[in-house]
Every structure is written in structure tokens, then in C-alpha cells.
Amino acid sequence: MVTITFPDRETEKLALAFLLGRFSGRALRSGEHLVPAAALEALAEQNIPFTVQGKATYEQQVAAIRGAASSSIQ
After folding, report:
1. How far apart are the first and last CA of the chain?
2. Rg of the Cα trace of the chain?
3. Are 28 and 6 within 8 A, CB to CB?
4. Is 64 helix (H, G, I), strand (E, B) or coil?
5. Strand, coil or helix: 27
6. How confident is the model at residue 73 (pLDDT cuts 50, 70, 90)?
7. pTM summary value
8. Cβ neighbours of residue 7 under 8 Å, at least 6 residues apart?
């Protein structure tokens, strides 16, 4: 998983609409998104700007999983 950000909210909405159903991922409260590396090429092919922050840390991945688990329980 790779951590990425988008330059503005409109681009973020466009990107998420494109990614939905094509790739798994997670949106973090910080505004960062965890996506598989393959999603980067797909976003670039669609001319959707993004910035790679780096490889997702173990802590980010665990927090995303915990957030998904707690939201599915409620």
C-alpha cells in the first residue's frame, strides 16, 4: 500500500469516484489515502493529479483496518 494525497477536495472526489470498485483502499482522517501501487498508474492514466507520500507504514495500515472493523461493528 502507498500513501497519497490530492491537491484539492474536487480532485479527491474525482479520484475516489474513479478508484471506487477498481481498487481497494482507505481514506484516513489526515486526508491521506492508502491505495495499492497499481492504483497510481491508473490515476496517472486518467490525468488525475496526486502526490505520493511514500509507502504506507504498518501503523497506518493497522489503524485503517481497526477503523474499518469498528465501523462495521456499529
Report:
1. 26
2. 12
3. no
4. helix
5. strand
6. very low
7. 0.78
8. 49, 50, 51
